[in-house]
Design brief:
The chain is built from eleven helices and ten strands. By secondary structure, it is of the alpha+beta class. The strands form two sheets. It has a six-stranded mixed β-sheet with strand order 6-8-5-9-7-10. Strands 1-4-2-3 form a four-stranded mixed β-sheet, with helices on one face. Helix 1 runs parallel beside helix 4. The model has no long low-confidence stretch (mean pLDDT 94).
């Protein structure tokens, strides 16, 4: 028979996909935890919540991506940390429901599979999973010529966590609960379309010296999202934590009300937020109004906990023991929305 067209000639290299699976197996194996049941390569992945220590678990799912931060990673050629961002965007959401992350799956889609590039991304995902004690149990790599430019790729993540029945959050939020903020490491993974617009308008490139630090602009902006899971799990064990809000797209203005009862709002003293030079530069370079900053960026706070006043000191001590620097930002009040006082530190 004459040799006809092959899948590889159409732009899809199955052998490269198999090579990638073999290369990332050690990274996946390094994330195994109690409850892990299978390695990569099957049609599905299994996990045993009972083996993970749960007797009557409620499962919680979360899915997310890292947005146009990927454009920055692709353009700079540094894809080593976007995997951490991907995990963080999912597991930081899970903890807000009171759930302990159990396992993670990723989706990597590209126009032309570069095994070295893909492996670096997935090894970053494994790093994020190890740091949050979450098992990387599976994923999907899709090579789709014609859908993506040759050097481009897209990422999505899916995480599942669990809690014992009756321990979900938010629960018990009360007037007077104190709001404790946990600092961010920078922009995290939201608002990058605006970041990229500001950089372009200023005539800068990712290789330009950062106007707010001693690295390049690209390196500074690729700082990965903080993983708050371990610190927040420890805080939950102290008691008195009634709600947690992950400050992502929508900023403080949109995310904090999501965890408060309909008849309650919050006061936030903006002067308590730690100063982040990158936020100051974005605000000034873009001429961004304070209200816009507060509903676009985290502004320096990546997670907020609502805590009973009599247990706030103990919760803060536990958070500090897990390398966090908690700040008291305000409290829960009657009414709706977030009521700001003071000024952002930039």
């Amino acid at each position: 028979m004459t040799q006809g067209l092959t899948y590889a000639q159409a732009g899809v290299d199955i052998d490269a996909g198999n090579d990638l699976v073999e290369r990332i197996k050690p990274a996946s194996k390094s994330t195994q935890r109690l409850g892990s049941m299978s390695g990569l390569g099957g049609f599905g992945a299994m996990f045993d919540p009972k083996a993970a220590g749960f007797s009557d678990p409620i499962l919680v799912g979360a899915t997310d991506g890292v947005g146009t931060k990927l454009r920055l990673a692709i353009d700079t050629g540094d894809v080593s940390t976007v995997g951490i961002d991907l995990v963080a965007m999912c597991v930081n959401d899970l903890i807000c429901q009171g759930a302990e992350p159990l396992f993670f799956l990723d989706y990597f889609a590209t126009g032309k599979l570069d095994v070295a590039q893909a492996a670096q991304v997935i090894e970053g995902i494994a790093d994020g999973c190890r740091l949050s004690r979450c098992a990387l149990i599976g994923g999907e790599t899709a090579e789709m010529p014609g859908m993506y430019a040759k050097d481009d790729f897209d990422l999505a993540g899916f995480a599942v966590g669990a809690m014992e029945r009756g321990t979900h959050l938010p629960a018990g939020v009360a007037l007077g609960d104190l709001l404790i903020g946990l600092p961010s490491s920078g922009v995290h993974s939201n608002g990058f379309s605006l970041v990229r617009r500001i950089v372009a308008d200023k005539g800068l490139t990712w290789d330009s010296p950062a106007p707010f630090g001693d690295s390049t602009l690209g390196v500074a902006l690729l700082t990965p999202t903080v993983l708050y899971v371990n610190a927040c799990l420890a805080a939950l064990k102290v008691g008195g934590v009634h709600a947690m809000a992950h400050i992502t797209g929508g900023g403080l203005t949109e995310n904090l009300p999501r965890v408060l009862p309909d008849d309650m709002g919050a006061t936030v003293d903006l002067s308590t937020i730690p100063a982040l030079p990158i936020m100051a530069w974005l605000s000034q370079a873009g001429g961004i109004a304070e209200a816009e900053m507060l509903k676009t960026f985290n502004c320096g706070i990546g997670m907020i906990l609502a805590v009973a006043p009599d247990q706030a000191a103990a919760v803060e001590a536990e958070l500090a023991a897990h390398a966090m620097s908690p700040v008291r930002m305000g409290e829960v009040i009657t009414g709706q929305g977030v009521h700001y006082s003071g000024q952002l530190p930039f």
